[in-house]
Specification:
The protein has 381 residues and is an alpha/beta fold. The protein folds into 2 domains: 2-250, Rossmann fold; 259-380, Tetratricopeptide repeat domain (Serine Threonine Protein Phosphatase 5, Tetratricopeptide repeat, Alpha Horseshoe), CATH 1.25.40.10. It contains 15 helices and 8 strands. The protein has an 8-stranded mixed beta sheet with strand order 1-2-4-3-5-6-7-8, with helices on both faces. Helix 6 links the parallel strand 6 and strand 7. The chain starts with a helix and ends with a helix.
Length: 381
């Protein structure tokens, strides 16, 4: 039943995203042949724009690409992750060779693994960076053998990826202990997601549970680790369950302020609500390597918290920020009006609300909202 559900979901994802998928072949000197890739561009992607997008590289792209792009498109639509470029690498004919490792070193073998490793880092990613608008924040996704293979990039002095999504990995010998040592000393924020299921292949499940015990013991604030052990799922259906979990974990900080974050973090923050907002967005830029435009949801959260704390200075700074970020939107007029209204300057509040009537409406602020504020003030006179 889980497999049926996964296939149905994949079908829905394909239907919504196919129009944006690009199919290409890359001629590789590293592996001595061309390799098929699939590229999903974000909605409204502008090749002449100045926006940079995170890159998600999906190994086993023959079957992992479609559920991945469906989830990235869905989550980015709701603002829970940034719009991203997703690249799937087809391996159906070369999988065993691509993902092979040496029996002596347990690292990529000279019979295909090393060549594929270099193809990804020295040919595929440079090609994508040259032809598309990519940021330096990269995620890699793998399943079974490819979930083991993605770990090899962590042993580079400067790992190619910041996020690792490993679904039911078929771990090479000593990988668990080696990875523990590596992640204990990493100095860059690294996101690692691991998943298995109760009906996973038994031999894999046993090693993954032991792997989780080892990774859970790593003490390093730079490691952001999440493990899921799904019930009523098997080796294949766990992928459909794990992708949204992994996205949620990797982009927790990026997500708009939720009720939980508002109550537990913003209201208890030592500084002002405005200071909390600025720190959040500074942290986003630091963690992910790109700047996020302040979303209206977060402006609303700061407005509510500032009023609750009777913090007029925070409201003043918020109104300035709204005007800077949304100069052509009713948002700028609304937040200016909210500040003046709060400090008792009804004349300027009225002028602010009136000035917004000819501006562009937003998700939450419309002409009717501004008119209601205007009538409220006029009724007080």
């Amino acid at each position: 039943m889980n497999k049926i559900i996964l296939f149905i979901l994949c079908g829905l994802f394909i239907k919504t995203a196919t129009a944006q998928v690009i199919y290409e072949k890359i001629e590789s000197s590293k592996i001595g042949e061309s390799r098929e890739i699939k590229i999903q561009l974000p909605r409204n992607y502008d090749p002449e724009g100045d926006v940079l997008y995170p890159l998600v590289v999906v190994l086993d792209g023959d079957y992992l690409f479609e559920p991945t792009i469906g989830n990235t498109d869905y989550h980015s639509y709701w603002g829970d992750m940034p719009k991203s470029i997703v690249v799937g690498v087809n391996q159906v004919k070369t999988r065993d060779s691509d993902l092979s490792y040496s029996d002596e070193t347990n690292f990529p073998s000279d019979e295909g693994g090393s060549q594929f490793f270099e193809f990804i880092g020295m040919e595929l990613i440079p090609y994508i960076n040259e032809n598309y608008l990519t940021s330096n924040f990269r995620i890699v996704v793998g399943h079974d053998q490819s979930a083991n293979f993605i770990n090899y990039w962590l042993f580079k002095d400067k790992p190619l990826f910041r996020g690792y999504i490993a679904f039911s990995p078929d771990l090479s010998p000593e990988m668990a202990n080696r990875l523990k040592e590596r992640l204990t000393t990493t100095t860059e924020d690294t996101f690692y997601y691991l998943a298995t299921a109760d009906n996973d292949v038994k031999s894999l499940r046993d090693s993954i549970l032991a792997f989780n015990t080892i990774l859970s013991s790593v003490e390093n604030s730079k490691l952001h680790y999440r493990f899921d052990d799904f019930t009523d799922a098997d080796h294949y259906s766990l992928v459909g369950l794990g992708i949204p979990k992994a996205i949620n974990e990797i982009f927790t900080l990026f997500k708009p302020i939720s009720r939980k974050e508002y109550k537990e973090k913003m209201l208890t923050f030592e500084g002002s609500p405005y200071d909390y907002l600025i720190k959040k967005y500074d942290d986003i830029e630091f963690f992910y390597g790109f700047e996020k435009k302040v979303v209206e949801n977060d402006l609303k959260a700061v407005l509510a918290a500032s009023k609750k704390k009777n913090d007029d200075e925070s409201l003043k700074n918020l109104s300035k920020l709204a005007r800077k970020v949304y100069p052509e939107s009713m948002i700028s007029a609304y937040y200016a009006g909210q500040y003046y209204d709060f400090v008792g300057n009804t004349k300027k509040a009225l002028q602010s609300y009136q000035s917004g009537l000819l501006l562009e409406a937003s998700e939450f602020i419309s002409k009717d909202v501004l008119l209601d504020k205007i009538y409220d003030i006029q009724d007080q006179d």
